[in-house]
Amino acid sequence: MSPLRRLPAWLALLAVAGCSSRSADEPEPPTELGAELLAELWRLGSVLTPRLVLLAVVVLAVLLTTRRGLTVAVRVAWRLGWDSNRSLARIRSWLELALFAAGALLLGRELFRAVPLLSILVLATAGLVAALALPGGLQDFTAGVSLASRRRFLEGDQIEVAGFSGTVRHIGLLRSMLRLPDGRTLWLPNREIVRSAVQVGREQQALPVSVPLPAAANEPELRERLRQVAHLSPYRRAGSRPSVIEDGERWVLTFQTWCTRRPDVAARALDRQLRAVTRHWETEPR
Amino acid sequence: MKRDALALIGLLTACKIEPIEELELEEHTPISLPDTVQPRSTELPRDDQGAARWDEALGRHLGFATGPALGGRHPGSPEAALTAGFVVAVWQAAGLSPSGPDLGWTQAVGVRVVETTGLSLTVQPPADEKGKPVAPLRFEEGLWLQRHGNANTGALRLRLEGQAELAPEAVPSPTADPSVEPPPPLERLRLLEPLVASKSASPLVGYRDAFEAAWRDGVDVAVLPIPGEDGATLAAAERWRQPEVQSLLLGHDPPTALDLQGFVAADVYQALVDARATPGATVELAYTATEQWFENSNVIGRLAGGRHPEQVVLVATQWDEGGLAAAQPEEAQLYAGSLAVLLAVAEGAARWRSAGRRPERSIVFLAEAAGSMGHLGIARFIEASGIRPANIVAVVVLDQLGGTSSELLLVDGARSTLAQEVNTLDPTARSVAAGDQQYGHTAFLELRVPAVTLTRPAAPRADGKIPPPSLPALRRDAELTLRLLWTLADQTEPPRWIGEDQAPAVAP
């Protein structure tokens, strides 16, 4: 074994010796764990072969290229109109996570096989260091995983978050990109998005609009007619059904509107229409 | 084992679990039809079914577009966002894909309107030989001047370009008192020759070129005399009498341009010419520029093509009405018919798609913002929609539709082979030249993209009012538009652009 390969082991030995509080003239036999750790350190030189380094580089390159390719492919699909519901967004995010997990497993497998104790130790230390020194990064990642399901908003939605307003262009595992109204680009850490209140101005969303019905609506026949009028309202979101429910002593008509930015307009228009129908109902001979 | 795993994955993929909508409320009363109802379209004879479906869609969209809820679809009004939302809702329900540049449905179109008022021009001749001041000439009429830059109130002290210098002994010596600030240097005023404009084929372009050349020469103000009775040049000059409309997103810097530019009446121009010949004469120009800035949205939807999804047949119309004028009453809403046609055609195309017919090329639907303000929405679409003009194979712009005329007019139809395509479907359609009127397709023609505007304007009634769009005419136009779009999207050879010199002459 070449001296260069043994260098990490020597360095680790020196570190262990330096950290020891005992003097050199009172040697303490190493414990079982220490002996195992030392043995793994000795073995480390033989594990870190050029083949493993090459494998790591190839795996990383493939991972990054695949990730980039996924992003581009999804965006092209959207540009061409192939995914009207933007369902590819969450598939991309989950695939990204799966890719990273697969890459980490592939690279870690060799190390875990050869030096399991040292790998666990390094992993725990790295985790501790990351948690203490880079808490933001971990929080961003955790927030990115929670955003990956796209339950809050999707790419293409207009949102207001943390004092910024813009269109969501990209939701990543660490950061998300907004296109501001003046054309500038804003990268927001995911933890900021998760912490802040997010207002989503998605046009395809729906809001419930409730309109109290006039007193004459006690008659079931009139109620049915009013419900049909609401069904034909241009403010009704396609696919939703208006319903009439009893709220205390009065009847209330509720339906979902696409007009999420001005639900008051939809409510006023429907109220006007319902009152006109009721007036006509009361005056027409039956 | 492997087969089982694959089956399991397939099963999981196929089972799309929809989340239960929180807002969906329980329905207490079942739907029951009223006693008297119109026959459903499926109960009609086969020939009438299509017509009934078109009429239903067109009537629904037309009623809402002209209704009080949208307040005349005036650009910049609170109802403008509502109108764009309505278009999005219709297309979303139809099943189109959002195709805005930022992956959503909309594209912001910024509009900045600068109005220059309070104009007054004062020509101050130098003192006479005895040193007695001469009364200035002051003009408040006959000034068609625009400011394009920042809004402010100002008074420019000007020196005419080419003005004779004062004799050295007549120049007052600078004061020795350091506490007295020297007067600011005079700005430069250029009197443009009327011939400059008439050299160009288009008076408007000629005027713009002349003002731009003056700005590049470092001049601060440039004026032209108001042209005489010549209709084309006078109409072009009238633009400088109106507020300046710019396509500018909020927060961006106004364009750099001359401080003031435009036209002055013949007597004002003559006074300036005289002042130029008089050494020591100065000119003062006072103005107030106010600005109005707002953003509306283009709405862009796409029906994906099968074989060449990157190639696009574009159909567009404006969703707004009235421009800078006050909101239009319902009967004067000229473009509501074309908006209804665009929405109904999108629904029809999406219905065909869901029935299994997929066009070879993509069809992109554009509801244009600020169309009534010089088609700023189309300019913005060309600028930054993410669709390259090279991928646009044809553009069909819908103008006023549903009119009483028996002929469908194809504006600039002869500038491409699109007129032949339309005539194959409707032999009565007639090609006309654009003339002075501004159409949305013109910007595409400049890019050599085959483009045409379809219009069937309504003739005014005896009382001068314009009748509302006729439903049968709208239906006919909508059917033609859908068939035309599908033909253009499916045919192997895309339409060709024909140069202006090769196009057959047509009447304007």
Characterize the structure shown.
The complex is a heterodimer of chains A (286) and B (508). With 286 residues, chain A is of the alpha+beta class. Helix content of chain A is 56%, strand content 15%. Chain A has 9 helices and 8 strands. In chain A, the strands form 2 sheets. Chain A has a 5-stranded antiparallel sheet. Chain A has a 3-stranded antiparallel sheet with strand order 6-8-7, covered by helices on one side. In chain A, helix 5 (116-133) crosses helix 6 (135-147). The radius of gyration of chain A is 32 Å and the shape is elongated. Chain B has helices at 2-14, 46-66, 78-94, 194-198, 203-216, 231-238, 266-277, 336-354, 376-384, 418-425, 442-446, 471-490, and strands spanning 97-98, 106-124, 137-139, 143-146, 153-160, 187-191, 221-225, 244-247, 260-264, 282-303, 308-318, 361-368, 392-398, 409-411, 430-432, 451-455. Chain B has a 16-stranded mixed sheet that branches. In chain B, helix 8 links the parallel strand 11 and strand 12 (361-368). In chain B, helix 2 (46-66) packs across helix 12 and helix 3 packs parallel to helix 8 (336-354). Chain B starts with a helix and ends in an 18-residue tail after the last helix.
